[in-house]
Amino acid sequence: MTDPLNRAQPYALGLFRIVIGLLFTCHGAASLFGVLGGAHGGGTVPLGSWPGWYAAVIQLVCGGLVLVGLGTRAAAFLASGSMAYAYFKVHQPESLWPLQNGGEAAAMFCWAFLLLVFTGSGAFGVDKLLTRRSAAPAEAPREAPVAV
Question: Which residues are CB-neighbours of 86 under 8 A, at least 6 positions away?
Fold first, then answer.
């Protein structure tokens, strides 16, 4: 039973990365552009405001990079850190438990991105495509003809 699951692991990880990246990108787009309901139920975050605008830029950019699987580990590291900051600076001072302080999404995103830091992009990512291309064997050098 475990062999088929092990063979499917890169594909499941790739799908996980795509979903997490898409959801994170949507958060950034909502905050920056007011789409999908906007920031906090409507509107956008003010340009340059700390930390909301910077968090939204990280969400949009890092979420997009994770979504397509380009620079996944670095983008996931930055995204995980931003969500840890969001949890401990914004949510945790309200109360200890994420269910009470509204920080479930921040905690889940933080741990999901941290997982991607250690696992990489899985299948379907641009990282894998670039790695495959750079690892393609070059044409073997031709040997000089031997004079007889």
Answer: 51, 55, 103, 106
